[in-house]
Amino acid sequence: MATLLDPHNRGRVILVGAGPGDPGLLTIRAVEALKAADVVVHDGLIDPRVLDIAPTTAQRISVAKRRAQHTLPQEAINALIVAHVRTGSLVVRLKGGDPFIFGRGGEEVEAVRAAGLPVEVIPGVSAALGCAAEAMLPLTHRDHSSAVSFVAGQCKGLSEQDWSGLAGQGRTLVIYMGVATAAAIADKLMADGVAPDMPVAVLERGTQPGHRAIRTLLADLGAMVERERVGSPAIIVVGEVVLLSDAEDKLARWARIAEESAA
Q: Residue ranges of the Tetrapyrrole methylase domain (predicted)?
């Protein structure tokens, strides 16, 4: 079987999970793929130190996506990958987190396979796992949570999504891409029966410089995100396990400020 470093094993694409940010969280196989790459098609939030692992001769192509601002639509990204593979290049499609967790990796694999070209996937540390570990926030715990769910907060028809049973006692809910819709997410969860005093944490820029882990209660989530000026990338964790984390208690802080102002 040909190896990644075999110079004759080209003309294919490897989807590589770059993890949540810290280059130290790359897998050994991800590093091998980057070192062998002819072309690196990468997300916009990839740490420059990760890109530096690729050879200086490798072509680097950013296909950065931000909320409502895409360098290329997904169909064009698929076509770009296929076009470079057809030239005989080893193409590394470098994606933040894990390619198959809200990374649209499945769509890219389908496109490459439809073109009759070889494709491989190297998993990465997902944002939920990496950011939670940094904040000492166990997503499952024998005494507090026996189930964990992952959902996308940046989706059409949020109010129509069926999230019933995903959050509550004994369960943990992790919400990706939810900062911009934090207030609506809190309203939806409370409308679906989650207690307003359920602990929530926002993990901002996890494993990257300037990272923050802050917590409050569900009813305060939208207001806290606004007053703390939380930005992307960030994930939201809902559940009792939040109380076990190192996240700073922002509700208590703001309650003290309010009391001092009223005195």
A: 12-221
The 8-class DSSP code of residue 167 comes to: S
Distances (CA, A) of 2 to 32, 79, 149: 13, 26, 37
- Rounded distance, CA 173 to CA 234, Å? 14
Tens digits of per-residue pLDDT, 42-66?
A: 999 899 999 999 999 999 999 987 6
Task: Select 12-125's CATH number: 3.40.1010.10, 3.40.190.10, 3.40.50.300, 3.40.50.12780.
Answer: 3.40.1010.10
Asked if 228 and 256 touch (Cβ cutoff 8 Å), the reply is no
Question: Long-range CB contacts (< 8 A, 24+ apart) of 31-36?
Answer: 32/4, 32/5, 33/4, 33/92, 33/122, 34/92, 34/94, 35/5, 36/4, 36/5, 36/90
CB 26 within 8 A of CB 92: no
Residue spans of the domains in the chain: they are: 12-125, 128-254
Question: The pTM is what?
Answer: 0.89
Catalytic positions: 43, 65
